[in-house]
Write a structure and sequence with these properties.
With 705 residues, the chain is α+β, with helices and mostly antiparallel strands. Among the domains are: 118 residues, Aldehyde oxidase/xanthine dehydrogenase, molybdopterin binding domain (Aldehyde Oxidoreductase, domain 4, 2-Layer Sandwich); 237 residues, Aldehyde oxidase/xanthine dehydrogenase, molybdopterin binding domain (Aldehyde Oxidoreductase, domain 4), CATH 3.30.365.10. It contains 17 helices and 29 strands. The strands form 7 sheets. The protein has a 7-stranded mixed β-sheet with strand order 6-8-4-15-12-13-14, sandwiched between helices. It has a 6-stranded mixed β-sheet with strand order 1-29-26-25-20-19, with helices on both faces. The longest helix has 22 residues. The protein is globular. The chain binds dioxothiomolybdenum(VI) ion. Dioxothiomolybdenum(VI) ion binds next to loops.
Length: 705
């Protein structure tokens, strides 16, 4: 058993901890401000673009009056549907800017002012006057919406619906049935660094200094939106201040910057404001989820049905795969999952940490807790009773399913049986209780390339277009490259985060670690073989080997690969105020080999923290009349801070090694958020007897308790 929670003793000289684990190699640059983020690049003649956004949720632009705006000193141009180049048709309506006078949602970009200073651009943006013909907007998700439809597939390409056996008959015959509806609100990614792009054109070629989770997708999306060749787009993204999925796809500020830079013939910077992040950068769709579980009296599942309703926009489809995890978690002779979508007059939802698994497992793992109560079985035991031998959906073996070990180990560390058995405790106005839930996240990899070079002076260079969005991948990959080359890390230079480097997977779907180490490992191994075959002399320019993992990824055996976890939570609920505090969370995870325990610990704690935040705080509050999220800033959209998270303990099972790639790593970016909110809600139920099925667990939902 490896505790990732041991105290960190730092060897400041070598930037390693006492165990020799490499510490964040770019940490000093980040804390001293030397690390340059997208908007911090600077060009002598750069101009500034500021978006103007719609103030209605649906309708037509009748007139765009720029008379007052264009006379502001320093204004270079104003782009809008009245004055814009024609862009190609494309799939992503969010990137197809200024092509229509129609408004699809409140906060949509309808114009952009470009000026020689940010101040002038902001001032002029406020002076662009737009007259609208407003139509009634439809922004509320509901299960009886007349325009609900079944998408062709759910993100990215899963079946929309699945049915196995006769779920209705199984439910009718079950000894115990749980039938409950859970809801999660719209939730918004709020990485510390807002999205930002500087666009620089040079002889028809575009360079973007961008804040993205990967460049290959970004260059294709921007090229498609502009109608240019992807090979003419370079994306540089050395430092990225968080993404959580919101930077996995290109955002409209990149298109604004590119169009503006082309028109004014200077570099143009476009930074999304915090408020604009609530409309321009995607969000987690609200969900309504009905879960029906049927079981025998001794807790064996006979039926699982998970029906989901969620939204998309009118200009692009994003269909979150909310019920997909349910297909693989527990076996039952009757099973059904469905997803229904409605296109509303809202911004397009998108990826947010563990899209699908995260909201879906809130519902499933809450329902499992309800079933445990109904059957009077311990919730840990109920999950163990229903542990499948094979993947229930595919019939294939699991690669490394150690959910039961996670549950047992977590239960032991948390003194679960004793604390759960004691029942809720009262301490003055505070009631306390404990809860548990499972975590799951798919383990996958995608084709990546890498180049490794040996130099005669004993230095090594490893190059790959991998991303470090704050996860510590720069550190973990450097450590892995040094291990592969059997040299100390200070002899190796790692270059990442530039589309000019060998193309690789984005930092998304927790696939970075497996995809990138696979390519790095292969490049280093082939370089070593090449050196072994040579006479030992290395020319001054070095000897380089470039590889791709295309064949290996395609040849992966058909195995169900997931990371698993078990999360245990203690809550305290104040019976006077309804306030919920979480003094302790404990997670045990199985995620293949852990590349760098220090970086992995941060990822898992980060995921659990975000899950706590989801459980107790995060909620986009919709003004149904005006059609927008009213709490569009960090003063009103609450996320967990240090004071909300007193103690999170993380452990990983020993001996983890995935068959995914050379390193055996599976990535830990997302599994930590999955199940966390259910564990909190289940603990709240244990403490108070109140089952909160609608997130977040607000004070008013617990009063009177
Ligand atoms: Mo993550 S939501 O796959 O970037």
């Amino acid at each position: 058993m490896t505790s990732l929670d041991s105290a960190l003793e730092v060897d400041a000289e070598r930037l390693t901890d006492a165990d020799g684990t490499l510490l964040r190699v770019d940490g000093p640059d980040k804390v001293t401000g030397r690390a340059v983020y997208a908007a911090e690049h600077h060009f002598a003649d750069q101009a500034y673009a500021v978006p103007v956004t719609s103030t209605i949720a649906k309708g037509m632009i009748m007139a765009i009056d720029v008379a007052d705006a264009e006379v502001v000193a320093g204004v270079l141009t104003i782009i809008s549907a009245d004055h814009a180049p024609v862009l190609p048709e494309g799939d992503d309506g969010e990137l197809r800017l200024f092509q229509s006078h129609e408004v699809a949602y409140r906060g949509q970009i309808v114009a952009a002012v470009v000026a020689t200073s940010l101040e002038a651009a902001v001032e002029a943006a406020g002076l662009v006057r737009i007259r609208y013909d407003e139509a009634p907007a439809d922004v509320l998700l509901r299960t009886d919406h007349p325009r609900l439809y079944a998408p062709e597939h759910v993100n990215p390409d899963f079946a929309t619906d699945t049915t196995v056996g006769d779920v209705e008959a199984q439910l009718a015959q079950a000894d115990v049935v749980v039938d409950a509806t859970y809801t999660t609100p719209g939730e918004h990614n709020n990485p510390m660094e807002p999205h930002a792009t500087i666009a620089v054109w040079d002889a028809g070629r575009l360079t973007l200094y961008d804040s993205v989770q990967g460049s290959q997708r970004a260059r294709r999306a921007v090229a498609a939106a502009l109608g240019i060749d992807p090979d003419d787009v370079r994306v540089v993204y050395q430092f990225v201040g968080g993404g959580f999925g919101s930077k996995g796809s290109s955002r409209p500020q990149a298109i604004v910057a590119a169009l503006a830079a082309r028109e004014v013939d200077r570099p143009v910077v476009c930074v999304v404001s915090r408020a604009q992040m609530f409309t321009m950068t995607g969000y987690r769709t609200p969900t309504i989820q009905r879960v029906q579980l049927g079981a025998t009296a001794d807790g064996r599942l006979t039926a699982t049905a998970h029906d989901v309703w969620e939204q998309t926009s009118t200009i692009a489809e994003f269909a979150e795969q909310t019920a997909v995890a349910t297909r693989h978690m527990y076996a039952a002779p009757g099973r059904r999952t469905t997803h229904r979508l409605v296109a509303l007059d809202v911004p397009t939802p998108a990826w947010m940490r563990a899209p699908g698994e995260c909201p879906g497992m809130f519902a499933l793992e809450s329902a499992m807790d309800e079933l445990a109560t109904a059957c009077a079985i311990d919730p840990v035991e109920l999950r163990i009773i229903n542990e499948p031998d094979l993947d229930p959906e595919t019939g294939t073996p699991f690669g490394d399913r150690r959910l039961v070990q996670c549950l047992r180990d977590g239960a032991r560390r948390f003194s679960w049986a004793e604390r759960r058995g004691r029942g809720p405790q009262r301490d003055g106005a505070w009631l306390s209780g404990v809860g548990v839930a499972s975590s799951v996240y798919p383990a996958r990899a995608q084709t990546s390339a890498a180049r490794a070079t040996a130099y005669p002076d004993g230095r090594w260079l490893v190059e790959i277009d991998a991303a470090d969005i704050g996860t510590g991948s720069r550190t973990a990959l450097l450590g892995y490259a040094a291990e592969c080359l059997a040299v100390s890390a200070d002899r190796v230079e790692l270059r990442i985060a530039d589309s000019a480097l060998p193309a690789a997977m984005i930092a998304g779907g927790s696939m970075g670690a497996a995809s990138w180490t696979w390519a790095i490992g292969k490049a280093c191994a082939e370089l070593q073989q090449r050196l072994d075959r040579s006479d030992g002399s290395i020319p001054a320019l070095g000897i380089a080997v470039e590889v791709s993992t295309k064949d290996e990824v395609a040849a992966l055996p058909d195995v169900s690969r997931f990371s698993f976890g078990a999360q245990f939570v203690e809550v305290r609920v104040n019976t006077d105020t309804g306030e919920t505090r979480v003094p302790h969370m404990l997670g045990v995870f199985s995620a293949g080999r852990i590349l760098n325990p220090v970086m992995a610990r941060s990822q898992l704690i980060g995921g659990m923290t975000m899950g706590l935040s989801m459980a107790l705080m995060e909620e986009a509050i919709l003004d149904v009349e005006l059609g927008y999220v009213v709490n569009h800033d960090l003063a009103q959209y609450h996320i967990a801070t240090h004071a909300d998270v007193p103690s999170i303990e993380v452990h990983v099972l020993d001996g983890g090694r995935s068959d995914l790639g050379r390193a055996g790593a599976q990535g830990v970016g997302e599994v930590g958020i999955v199940g966390a909110a259910a564990a909190v809600a289940n603990a709240v139920h244990h403490a108070t007897g109140i089952r909160v099925r609608d997130l977040p667990i607000r004070l008013d939902r617990l009063l009177p308790c």
